[in-house]
Structure formats: structure tokens, C-alpha cells
């Protein structure tokens, strides 16, 4: 006699295979996978671009990224905006056409913007050179300047975790930083 329902162990195996296939399909389709790093926080992503629209009243921002896409952000929490003024006054002062880097965590409808760095003339200070070393555990980057001096800069927490992961020694970089009381803290860097 043949039963139409499979034994319990076979049913569990089929269910498990279905779950594994669904997860694999999501990964293969490019579904973002966000995993908590050491310390229990979610890594942030940095996206560079130009402000397309900003609305402090509604807490929204759209940025045309360097790859040509437009990303929309709803700002749910206090957002720090860094520039040469040294103020962290949320969105005031941001205007259409400004070059910025938006640091955010999450994906889809649960994106949280944590920081916006201005890269234009009124924004962060900038230096160029070649990477001598990056020590993420100590939160430092050493940059060899064009005059052969080496400068050590502190990495902000967001940068130390994820920005420039593939950057190798001797790579030419542009470094954006704040300089508060002689402490140079890197908020963003990129290869040139």
C-alpha cells in the first residue's frame, strides 16, 4: 500500500532543501546581505554623488551617484553633516549640485542615513597621496604625500569598518577629513 504523504524525515529534508534553494536564489539574484560586524552594529555603506534635491522639511534627500543612478533617502534620525564650518546642524546648508558622500546602513525600506560629508569647496579638507599602510584595528591610515612626507590620519568608525576594503599599499588615494584641534579624522577616501 502506498501513502500519499511522505514520511516525516523526508518532509523535513524537502522543506530544508527548499529553504536552502530560496536563500541561494536570493544571493544569486543580488539580494543585499547585511551581516553585523564585531561589536553588534551594522556596517555602513558610503555612496558618493551630487545632491539632486534636498527637503529639510520632509527629511528627504536624493543623490545622483557617480555611477549615474539616483538614490532617494528618507532621513529618520538626526543626521550629521560635516564640512569646514565644523557644525553638525543636520541638513541646513545642503543645496542642489553639492558633491557629497552619504553614509547609510540597511537596505530597501529600512535604510538609515547616519552622516553626510560635503566634498565641495565648503566641505571636508582634502589631501592626496599614496597609501603607506591602513591599520583598521588601530583606526589609522598612513599616506605618503607627494613631497615624500608620511602623514598619519585617524579613521572614523564608519571608514575603519568598510570604506576602501580593497585598497592596497602604494595605491594613490584622495582623502577627505576633518581637522579639529589638530586631529585629522578621515570620513571618506577613494582611489584616484
Short synopsis of the structure:
This protein has helices at residues 8-28, 157-162, and strands at residues 45-55, 60-65, 70-74, 80-82, 99-105, 112-118, 125-135, 140-144, 150-155, 172-180, 183-191. It has 192 residues and is mainly beta. A hairpin with a 6-residue loop joins β5 (99-105) and β6 (112-118).
Description:
This protein has 192 residues and is mainly β. It has two domains: 45-118, OB fold (Dihydrolipoamide Acetyltransferase, E2P) (Beta Barrel), CATH 2.40.50.320; 125-191, Copper binding periplasmic protein CusF (OB fold (Dihydrolipoamide Acetyltransferase, E2P), Beta Barrel), CATH 2.40.50.320. 14% of the residues lie in helices and 41% in strands. The chain contains two helices and eleven strands. The strands form two sheets. It has a six-stranded mixed sheet, with no helix packed on it. It has a five-stranded mixed β-barrel with strand order 7-8-9-11-10. The longest helix is centred in the N-terminal third of the chain and has 21 residues, at 8-28. It starts with 7 loop residues before the first helix and ends with a strand. The model is unreliable at 1-41 (pLDDT under 50).
Amino acid at each position: 500500500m502506498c501513502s500519499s504523504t511522505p514520511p516525516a524525515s523526508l518532509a523535513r529534508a524537502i522543506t530544508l532543501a527548499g529553504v536552502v534553494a530560496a536563500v541561494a536564489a536570493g544571493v544569486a539574484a543580488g539580494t543585499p546581505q547585511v551581516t553585523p560586524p564585531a561589536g553588534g552594529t551594522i556596517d555602513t555603506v558610503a555612496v558618493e554623488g551630487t545632491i539632486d534635491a534636498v527637503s529639510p522639511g520632509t527629511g528627504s534627500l536624493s543623490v545622483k551617484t557617480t555611477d549615474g543612478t539616483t538614490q532617494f533617502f528618507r532621513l529618520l534620525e538626526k543626521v550629521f553633516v560635516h564640512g569646514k564650518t565644523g557644525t553638525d546642524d543636520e541638513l541646513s546648508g545642503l543645496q542642489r549640485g553639492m558633491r557629497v558622500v552619504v553614509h547609510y546602513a540597511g537596505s530597501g525600506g529600512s535604510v538609515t542615513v547616519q552622516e553626510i560629508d560635503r566634498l565641495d569647496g565648503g566641505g571636508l579638507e582634502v589631501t592626496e597621496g599614496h597609501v603607506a599602510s591602513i591599520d583598521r584595528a588601530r583606526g589609522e591610515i598612513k599616506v605618503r604625500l607627494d613631497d615624500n612626507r608620511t602623514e598619519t590620519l585617524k579613521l572614523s568608525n564608519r571608514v575603519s569598518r568598510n570604506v576602501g576594503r580593497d585598497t592596497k599599499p602604494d595605491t594613490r588615494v584622495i582623502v577627505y577629513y576633518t581637522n579639529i584641534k589638530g586631529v585629522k579624522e578621515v570620513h571618506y577616501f577613494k582611489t584616484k
